[in-house]
Amino acid sequence: MKVGLAKEFAIALLNSIYQLNDPCIKYLSDHIHFQKAKRDEFLLVPGQVSNRLYFIQKGLLRAYKLNTDTEVSVWFMKEKDFCTSVPSFYRQIASIEYIQALEDSELLYITFEDYKHLCEHYMEFNFVARELITQYFLLWDELFDGIRMRSAMERYEWLLANHPELLLRVPQKYLASYFDMTEVSFSKMKNKLIEK
C-alpha cells in the first residue's frame, strides 16, 4: 500500500474511534511518519526512551524482556495494531524491553511530542487516546487471563482459538518464551495436541 493511502487508512481508523475535526486530521496527516523495518531489526532497546507510537500497516512485531540471560516474550502485534513500550512512551522513561520486527514490516508512527500536541490542542483526540490506552489494558488483561492463569495445554488451546495466526507466523522459540516454557516442552505439548 502506498504511504499516502496508508496514512489515510490509519487516520480513518482513528476517526472511527471518535469523530476528529478537520484541523486535527490535517495535523495528523502532516505528522504521521512512515518507516520500514527489516526482519530482526530492533525498534527499541533497553535504555532508550520510546518516542514513537506505531501503527502496523504490514508485518509483525514482538516485545520481550531479559530475565537473567533468557528472553521472555511479552506480546506480539500484527497488522492494524497500535504498539509502543507503554511505560516508556507515556512516562518518557528508559525502556526495559526490546521491540523487534519478526517480519519485514511497514509502520506508521507519531512521535511523543506530536501525540502530546494532539492531546493538548485537539480535545477530541483525547477520546481516541483514551480508547487506545483502554485497548492496551484490555489486551493485557486478556493475555494475563488467557496465558498466565491457565495450564500449559489450556494456554496453547487458548492461543489456537483466539490468535491462530501467531502459531504460523511466530517462531516456536518465541512462542515458548511467551508461554513461559522451554522450547522442548512447548514442542512436546504441541505434538500431544496434534496426536489427539
How is the secondary structure organized here?
Layout: H1 3-17, H2 22-31, E1 33-37, E2 42-44, E3 52-58, E4 60-67, E5 70-78, E6 82-83, H3 86-91, E7 98-101, E8 105-111, H4 112-121, H5 123-148, H6 152-162, H7 164-169, H8 172-178, H9 183-195
Antiparallel strand pairs: 1-8, 2-7, 3-6, 3-8, 4-5, 4-7
What are the salient characteristics of this protein?
9 helices, Jelly Rolls, 4-stranded antiparallel sheet, 2 domains, single chain, alpha+beta, 196 residues
CATH architecture label name of the largest domain: Sandwich
Number of strands: 8
* Strand-residue proportion: 15-25%
Q: Can you summarize the main beta sheet?
A: 4 strands, antiparallel
The neighbouring-strand order within the major sheet is 1-8-3-6
Principal-axis shape: elongated
**How many alpha or pi helices?**
9
Summing up helix and strand content along with how strands pair, one would put the structural category as alpha+beta
Percentage of helical residues? 40-55%
- The helix-strand sequence is HHEEEEEEHEEHHHHHH
Uncertain segments: none
